[in-house]
Design goal:
Blueprint (H helix, E strand, L loop, with lengths): L3 H17 L2 H10 L7 E2 L5 E2 L6 H9 L6 E4 L2 E4 L8 H11 L21 E3 L6 E8 L2 E8 H6 L9 E2 H16 L3 H46 L4 H50 L1 H7 L2 H11 E7 L4 E6 L9 E4 L3
Parallel strand pairs: 5-9
Antiparallel strand pairs: 1-2, 3-4, 6-7, 7-8, 9-10, 10-11
Helix pairs in contact: 1-2, 1-4, 2-3, 7-8, 8-9
The structure holds zinc ion.
The site of zinc ion (ZN) has 9 residues, from helix 5.
């Protein structure tokens, strides 16, 4: 549990860090205002007394995702049950500064090595599979495990954790096969481009329509305001309700308009991304080995719709994202 005092100090530390961007400055300022570190209840009942802040203390505090309401889950962080002390936007902003990233670049929690994250389904229960790892000595073993099995045990699902490397190699081998010849790259690019064009068209139409709707709604509200002064009793209440509803609708439309503008701004980036995917795919065999883990993940997220792993039948079905409706999944028996 986090005490009220600790919560105040934590928020202060985050705020000061965003102002000064130096942990040493934050520790100095906290000490100057008489703030103390938390008393630690160490194992075996020993306690560490509250003391002055060091730079290391501040860095530890700023990096603690618990304060943003997350809990560790395997190799990732997930939203926890406990309330957040600092909002996530502030927390991510601080992580960006700590990591030396510029503004606007999204902070990723995630270990980029798990390139199939989010794409895997357990064929036995239909649930997602999630990354995890164990350590034996200096070696790390990565795997993907069924969420049902993970949360409910063997009674929930029988599927056992599967070697991440083996699954990843398998999916990549399938992609190497389909990318031979370059036809697939062309197909993917065509699909990505047409999907983006549709999206662009819909957004532009919305940008034209929303201001008109807003003007109409504002006009109606103004009329009601005029009538309100002449009304009494139930009819007045009814009209007030209508006006409130119209105002809420207007607020919703304004919010949507801002979203549309942002989405239109982001379209250039999405077009570049589509071009990058097509390019990488055109020379997949050579390009794959040269990509960073993060970019490998990015490419797989774009190309693979879903991978269903069925331990019972020893099979892995790779559904491609752009193979079209009629395509059959690339299915293969795998040795355990
Ligand atoms: Zn399962």
């Amino acid at each position: 549990m986090v005490s009220e005092y600790e919560a105040v100090v934590v928020r202060e530390a985050f705020k000061l860090y965003l102002q000064h961007q130096q942990a040493s400055v934050v520790s100095r300022l906290l000490n100057e205002t008489g703030r103390k570190t938390k008393r630690y209840e160490a194992q075996r009942g020993a306690t560490r007394a509250a003391r002055k802040w060091t730079t290391q203390d501040v860095l530890r505090l700023l990096r603690s995702s618990l304060y943003a309401g997350f809990v560790p889950y395997g190799d990732e962080m997930r939203p926890g049950e406990h309330p957040a002390i600092v909002d996530r936007a502030t927390f991510h902003q601080v992580q960006d500064v700590l990591e030396g990233r510029g503004p606007g670049i999204q902070y990723h929690w995630r270990n980029p090595d798990y390139v199939l994250r989010g794409l895997l389904r357990c064929g036995m229960c239909g649930e997602a599979m999630t990354p995890g790892s164990t350590r034996k000595g200096t070696r790390e073993y990565r795997y993907y495990r069924c969420v049902t099995r993970d949360t409910q045990g063997k009674e929930g699902c029988q599927a056992s954790p599967l070697s991440a490397a083996a699954l990843e190699d398998f999916v990549v081998a399938r992609l190497r096969e389909v990318s031979v010849g370059g036809g697939f790259a062309t197909q993917v690019h065509a699909r990505l481009t047409s999907r983006l064009e549709e999206k662009h068209k819909a957004l532009r139409a919305e940008r034209v329509r929303l201001p008109k709707d807003l003007a109409r709604s504002a006009g109606e509200s103004a009329k009601w305001v005029d009538s309100l002064s002449k009304l009494e009793g139930p009819s007045r209440r009814l009209l007030e309700q209508k006006r409130t509803a119209a105002e809420e609708e207007s607020a919703g439309m304004k919010k949507r308009l801002a979203e549309v503008e942002r989405a239109l701004d982001a379209m250039e980036g999405e077009k570049l991304e589509a071009a990058w995917v097509a390019q990488a795919l055109a020379d997949f065999d050579a390009v794959w080995d040269a990509l960073t883990a993060a970019n490998r993940g990015r490419l797989l997220q774009a190309l693979v719709g879903r991978v269903v792993v069925d331990e019972e039948t020893d099979s892995v079905d790779v559904h491609l994202a752009h193979a079209g409706e009629s395509a059959t999944p690339l299915r293969e028996e795998v040795a355990p």
